[in-house]
Each structure stands twice: as structure tokens, then as C-alpha cells.
Amino acid sequence: MTNTARSTAFRRVTGLVHLRSGLLAAALAGVSAGAQAQSLQALLEAAQSYDATYLAAKAQFEANRAKAEQARSRVLPTVGLSAEAFVNRRDSSVQALDDTFNNQTVRLAATQPLYRPGNQLEVEQAQRALQAAEAQLQAAEQDLIVRVSQAYFDVLGAEDTLTFVQAQKAAVSEQLAAAKRNFEVGTATITDTREAQARFDLVVAQEIAAENDLRVKKLALDQLVGKSGTLPWRLPTPVALPALQPDDVSAWVQRATSEHPSVRAAQAALEIARLEVRRAEAAKGPTLDAVAQYQFARAPSSVATLPGYLRNQTASVGVQFNLPLYSGGALENRVKETLALEEKARNDVESARRGVSQATRAAFFGVQSGLSQVHALEAAEASSQSALDANQLGYQVGVRINIDVLNAQSQLFQTKASLAKARYDVLVGNLRLRQAAGVLKSDDLQPINALLQPR
Fold first, then answer.
1. Residue 9 needs a FRET pair 20 to 30 A away by CA distance; which of 16, 43, 361, 455 works?
2. How much is the pTM?
3. pLDDT digits (tens, 9 = 90+) for 87-109
4. What is the CB neighbour count within 10 angstroms for residue 276?
5. Are residues 177 and 38 in the same domain?
6. Is 49 strand, coil or helix?
């Protein structure tokens, strides 16, 4: 077989293996070849209504919103209704006074805070707590976007690995058959056949591992989005990956230190701590409430000239003043406690800023490195293909041995697998960078979704 014919056969086998791998991936997913594949955006929407971690964060936010509404009651009037009825038995040393009687009381009372600065501060604290809860929900949403995207591209990466392993298996199989033919006609030694057989057995083992890895990755994606038989859209090649915008790490860090959910939550906690200091100081001051009460009572008369039961109706309106004079040092030490907690919250804000700054820088340089790696691997892929062609030609003319061709094939397919993974890592890395900066939104998936194509 000539080198040209061999190269043509090699590429034909590779193309057939690509097609066969796609069908195998569909079979592993438990769907037919004509099943509807899902886009990244569609699977994210499915995960948002299924993922337990995200739904728990939403429930926690709703609980915090209700708690914030509870705090408003501290500055609003309170109204209470109470009633009591008793049957009484009186036994006296004066037998004439022995009797059984009953009494009833109904009381309606209302209180309106007039001067309670601590209550108003508590309302402001609840609003800050709601802001912190909103930031935590946003962080949970960003985490879900990254988890779905990572699982999505993990499946595509596993499919690519299986495809390349199967293509390598077909190529090694062809090389093994050629070595056997050459040995039979006496133009090669048994060493070539044994080397090809050993490489073929190794590739078979790699194929088994790749098939199992694909099953596991698909199960992980299915569990995350609550669907069975998910079939992600493919990333066609060659593809122009999105560049970093802006391509300035300082701009990303600046956004992160001001917009990241963890920073905003820490800032809200600092505001809560400052308000708590003011509440502790206000607790040492006076309070004033408006009080209104209406009472209806029915009881036996205690006046001898007025026998029987008497009914009394009493209405009162006034103000109630309270001022703590001595509390055993509790109020003073409460102020000291809140001042220490305020200092802690201030340091928590600084810690959060430093943390997101470091994470943003690492994510930015990771994406930069990933893009450079993709370009390098694209060049390496072309070089590996040229090296394989040269080794195949050398093997035909006798200046290369079988193991050289096998090594060149292995290098080519490993490079292809590394290149596919590097592309996926860049796409996910862009999302992780936005997450690190705290600006990731579901709309950020649209540019990535535009690169994908249905099967």
C-alpha cells in the first residue's frame, strides 16, 4: 500500500469512527439517534427548577424577606384582646358568707411606640440583612451556572476522548494488520507485530475507560438538570473562541471588589454591626409609648348595700415612659460587645475583598493561559499530523520502524484530546472569571450557546 493510499485510508477510518462515536454517545445516553439535543441555555433553565442547592437558596431568600417584614412590626401599633372567666367557691368561718360566684373580664389594649429609636434601627438592620440574602442568592445562581456549564462540557470532553480513542484504535488496528501482512511476506520481523498488538491492547483498555467515564459524566449532568438522556449540543471545529473583554486584569479586580456577592454581603453585615452599636447605646435611653385600654368586668358586689353582680366598663388613654437606671453593667458591656463585633465585620469586608481580588486574578490569568494553550495545541495538532504522515512514509521506505508510526499516532490523538479539553476549559474559564468578579449572569451563556450546534 502506498503512503498516499495509507493516508487516505487513515483519514477515512478516522471519519467513520467520528460518526460511530456520535451514535455510541447517543446509545450511552439512552436516547435514539434522532433525539432532540439540548442547548446549554436550555439545560440551565431545567437546572434552575430542579437543583436542590439552588432551590434551597431561593427558599432561604424568601425566609429572609419575610423576616425583614417582621421587623416592621416593631414600629407599628400592637392590639391585643384578652378575656377571662372564673367560677369561685368561698368557704368562710362565717357560714352566712359561704357561697359560689363567678366573674368575667374582657380587655382590649393597644400600644403605639412614640419614641423607641432601637426599634427603628432594627428595621434598618432587617433591610441590610435582606440585601445580604439577595447577594447570597445571586452567588448561588452564579454557582449553578458554572456547575451546569462544567458538567455540560465534561460530557462533550468525555465524548471527544472516546472518539479519539476509537479513532486511534482503528488506526492501530490497521497498523497491526499491515505488520502481520509484512511479516507473512517476510518484509518485517515479528517485533513489529508484537509492538502493534501491545499498542492495540492498550488502546482497547483506554476505550473501556473512556466509555465508562462518558457514562459517569452523563449521569452527573442528568442528575444536575433533572432530565434523563441529556444530549448536549456539539462545539464545531475549528472555532473562534471569545477573547477576554476587557483584556485588563485591573478592570476585572475593580469590578470584583465592588460587585462580588460575598463583598456586598460582608458590607451589609458591617452596616448591621454598626446599627447594632447604635441599638445598644439607645437601650440605655428612655422610651415612650402611647397606651389605650378598654375593659369590661362582671363580678359580685363587695358593697353590702348593693347586693348581686356589678358590671364595670373602664376606658383609659395615656402614655408610658420607661428609663433604665441600673442594669448591673449589662447595657454598658453590651455596647462593648457590639463595638468588637463591628471591628470584626470591618475586617471581614477587607478579607472578602482580598479573597475575590486573588480569585479574580487567578481566573483572569487562567483564561489567558488557556487561550495561549489552545493556539499552541492547534499548532501541535498540525505538526503531529505532519509527523505521522512522515513516519508512515518512512515506514514504507524502510527508514522508520513500526513503533515510530504507533508513537506518532498516539501523539496525534493525545494532542487532539488535549486541544478539545483546552477549548472547553477556556469557555468554562470565561464563566469562572465572571463568577470570580461577581458579575456572572445567565445571559452570559448566550455567546457560548451561539458557538454550539445541534447534532
1. 455
2. 0.82
3. 888 776 666 566 777 889 999 99
4. 21
5. yes
6. coil
